[in-house]
Write a structure and sequence with these properties.
Elements: E1 6-9, H1 18-24, H2 28-44, E2 53-57, E3 60-67, E4 70-79, E5 83-91, H3 99-115, H4 121-124
Parallel strand pairs: 1-5
Antiparallel strand pairs: 2-3, 3-4, 4-5
Amino acid sequence: MEKEWKIIFYRDDTGISEFEEFVKTLSDKDKDKVEAIVELLKEKGIGLHRPYSDILKDGIHELRIKLSRGDTRTLYFFIFETYIILTHTFYKRTNEVPDSEINKALKYKQDFLSKYNKDNIKKDL
């Protein structure tokens, strides 16, 4: 039996998800595209590779999505065997993912792990 992956949107202390806020700004067509790629990530998990996903560094991965206004990257990480945490999305303007974006995802990962562990994640989220 294949592993069932669970997608969680990282939320700051005020409850805001940068990923959800980004998606709200998109056209319906682009929203559908993002939803389809996120669903593919949920199905494949760690087995999703290029052209849809790639690993960056320190456990941070990128979802690679081409939208009408340009290429986007949604950064995410895996935790507790079955969870995928989507941190944030940005338009990619350079060849490499900027270190500032990776560091932001790492900061969010550290914050998330300071609040949740394997035992409380199921009941708290």
